[in-house]
Amino acid sequence: MEMHRRTAHRSWSLIGLAGLVLVLAGCGGSGGSGDSNAANGGSNGALSSGGCAGGDCGTLLVGLTDAEGDFVSYSVDVLSITLQRPNGASIETLPATTRIDFAQLTELSDLLSVTNVAPGNFVSGKIRIDYTNAEVFVEKNGEIVQAKIVGENGEPLGITDLEVRLANRDQLVVTRGRAAFLAVDFDLAASHEVDTAQSPPVVTARPYIVAEVQPVEEKDLRVRGALVAVDTSASSYTIDVRPWHKGDGNLGRVTVHTTAQTSFEIDGSVSMGGAGLTALAQKPAGTLTVAFGTLSTVNRDFTAEIVHGGTSVSGEGLDAVHGNVVSRSGDQLTVKGAFAVRRDHRADFRRTVVVQIGPNTRVLKNGSMERPDGGAISVGQSIVAIRTLSEPASTTTPPTLDATAGRIRMLVTELHGSVTSVVAGQLNLQLRAIDRLGVEMFDFAGTGVTAASDANPNDYEVLTGTLSLARIAPNEAAKVLGFVTPFGSAPPDFSGRTVIDRRNLPAVLGIGWGSGGTHAPFLSMEPTGLVLDVHNADIGERHFLNVGMRRIDLTMLGAGPTIMPAGGRTLFGVSDPGHVELFETFSEFVTELSARLGAGDAAIAMTAYGSYDEGSDTLHANRVSVHFAQ
């Protein structure tokens, strides 16, 4: 799988802090969509035009992303996304089933579809997800284990309709000759409770999905599709969209703009700017491409920073595996948290894959003209390995990808931890995780010049060069993006490109009150803040406040924290099965909570994101969701 992490930190714009919300409307079997003009797919799965043609149309782009959660993998089938006009007419924006691993969308959006539609407003709609063949993996005791996913009644989930309800002020508006962007965000942390005490772990789902219709920042976006044409004079190319890892179909057409700084990798050969676009122009129509870049909030143009084409696209003629190297022995790499894409475009999650490299393995650095050798690949490094994946004879043996005559693409890797020390040009971390994997999974033997200098996860040395460390302090959380030092060359252990201090790392509060809920979750409810009752007798297994490296048990606090609105864009939601209400002001949100609780409704869960001030024991929240029982 191709993944691109930009050196900028993950922005809150991807979490959809304004717009519409999709909530659980029902589980079990489902009937037809009832769309009045939904596309029938045809031979190529083309989208409906929504009753317009030519210059009279507007363009609707639908993207998919995920707020960060605790899942190593979360794969479900997205069956459809339908939008409805005020007169009841509807269009289908995703006529073909697409399997998505939402845990891999925490750093970017994936463009699902592009369709021409008649100008006008959309006031409602729904997303349909099939959990029948869902595969969910979590970390338990340093291992990746598959979890069982159930609904709030404890029963397995099937086809689930998530209803879209738009307030008048938040309608999705499509205008003639312009593109509108709908970013759908599946908030895994707010939607699930994970019980790892059971075997297998049990994940209880109450899907909570936010979609942003008026983005205020640039979007990190992944755009995948089959090449239609290249226009070197306009520094652009056109594709038919095929999201995620689909091998065929056409979910709309989009133009990808490039610049002199755009990095290209075509069939394993790297180039920049015009030279890269010229290389792409030599490829025949139908060649698969993947681009990573930003979507303009002004004119909705998409500009690529990185472009992959041909066999550089996972599953295009060659097998590919994406994951993190957890140990290395000679030329054998053990990769965990692996996402495999076969050359027939079948994609699935693999807990462990053994990757074999050799002297003829070509090593590339994503977005760079550098050509390191195999020695550059060390423990912790995020990679894509490309060539031939072989299945083992025994289920107890991991599959092997033979890259001895293939390629390894090194990706920007993400460290999570707490600062142990900081000096000019370097900071040391107590590692908590590398990308989505807990540090307990990594064996750092052989990473150092000598055994004594092997990387120490409790004092991991990060070279930061000229990066500013003015806001970095010992015992505080930090995130670093960059590349692992070549194998056998540490210290330092890591070369950082971006350092993110605790002020830009969200704190997350989660609490549940069991299936019966509670009628008194708060000690006080004021228009300016809520004080949580952390000694409520109905509190269940979920009661935490994550602040950087620390996980605070709310029930062990003497007094409950205050939850109050942060500055900037915020979103506060009250939901129950089949319905959600959104509030842009905290006072409106509190008024609704008071009314619901006063009427005898029971709150069953709450999730809040923001920044935590220990001195005042206050969570300044950008987003709060409170779920009520049916």
Helix-strand layout with pairing:
Blueprint: E1 20-26, E2 58-67, E3 71-84, E4 90-92, E5 98-101, E6 109-117, E7 120-122, E8 124-140, E9 143-150, E10 159-165, E11 172-174, E12 179-187, H1 188-191, E13 192-195, E14 202-205, E15 208-212, E16 219-231, E17 236-241, E18 253-257, E19 263-266, E20 269-272, H2 273-281, E21 288-295, E22 302-309, E23 319-329, E24 332-341, E25 347-356, E26 362-365, E27 382-390, E28 400-411, E29 413-423, E30 426-434, E31 437-438, E32 460-463, E33 477-484, E34 494-501, E35 507-512, E36 522-526, E37 529-532, E38 543-547, E39 550-553, E40 562-565, E41 571-576, E42 579-583, H3 586-598, E43 603-613, E44 618-628
Parallel strand pairs: 2-12, 6-16, 9-14, 18-22, 19-22, 25-28, 26-28, 32-34, 40-44, 41-44
Antiparallel strand pairs: 1-10, 1-15, 2-6, 3-4, 3-5, 3-8, 7-11, 8-9, 8-10, 12-15, 13-14, 16-17, 16-21, 17-18, 19-20, 21-22, 23-24, 23-27, 24-25, 27-28, 29-30, 29-33, 30-31, 30-32, 33-34, 35-38, 35-43, 36-37, 37-40, 38-39, 41-42, 43-44
Give an overview of the whole structure:
The protein has 630 residues and is mostly beta strands. It has 5 domains: 19-215, no CATH class; 221-312, OB fold (Dihydrolipoamide Acetyltransferase, E2P) (Beta Barrel); 319-411, OB fold (Dihydrolipoamide Acetyltransferase, E2P); 413-504, OB fold (Dihydrolipoamide Acetyltransferase, E2P), CATH 2.40.50; 507-628, no CATH class. The strands form 5 sheets. Strands 35, 36, 37, 38, 39, 40, 41, 42, 43 and 44 form a 10-stranded mixed sheet that branches. It starts with 19 loop residues before the first strand and ends with a strand.
